[in-house]
């Protein structure tokens, strides 16, 4: 009896619990963003899409304006040999390049508002050669300067030791000619056709020296040698030749002969040229014999 009562009591309790649980409503938990948070999220997503579209449009516009292509940008093209620029280009910073050349048959034009400088440096960044063209002029700095023709012939070269002019003719167009503070070595000095050749030393002496000889020739004019104190023609091993149809020695002093040796009543028109032991020339009245010894008072 006792066991049967316990079983009946347990069944009644279980039935009562099920009735109590069935009478209660189930609870629902919501997952996600709702309300004003949801609206803010949609707004930010929309704003981000608008910014992406504007950025994409600006990128496309920049690519179109700058003319970006697979080969390069604008006038700049990337080739196998390097960079290729078409048209005018402006560099705001220094340009470092191994070689700069223009198109075949087109000139290379460099322009600057101040100057154009080309510098050659060594591994220690020490200046070796410099070429500067500016408003003040053209300047070149280096150990040697050379100018050659298209055939490779040397036209002009200059270094610390000497300056060489390799052209067939050197022309000086200045009205004052050429001024040399030191000596000049040349095998031939000639004036232009129908022009005068003038060698002048205003304050010093003029010396012409050659180991084998000096030839002064004027085929269609006169030769004048003017000095203030002394004119000397000297030949150590050879002779001095004056080759002309007429040789005139002007303003030579005239020696005075003794009264007994002169003929009275006749005007003397013939003279002889005498030479003193010191090399001075003078005139002496010509006679049947030499009168140099008689009229040698000029040599005293």
Automatic annotation (TrEMBL):
Subcellular location, record wording: Cell membrane, Sarcolemma; Cytoplasm, Cytoskeleton
Segments traversing the membrane: 40-63
Keywords: Cell membrane, Cytoplasm, Cytoskeleton, Disulfide bond, Glycoprotein, Membrane, Signal-anchor, Transmembrane, Transmembrane helix
Keyword Membrane among UniProt keywords: yes
GO cellular component, one term: cytoskeleton
A GO BP entry: cardiac muscle tissue development
Topology of the protein relative to the lipid bilayer: Single-pass type II membrane protein
InterPro entries: Sarcoglycan (IPR006875), Sarcoglycan_gamma/delta/zeta (IPR039972)
Pfam families cross-referenced by the UniProt entry: Sarcoglycan_1
Coiled-coil region: none
Family: Belongs to the sarcoglycan beta/delta/gamma/zeta family.
The protein, known as: Sarcoglycan, delta (dystrophin-associated glycoprotein)
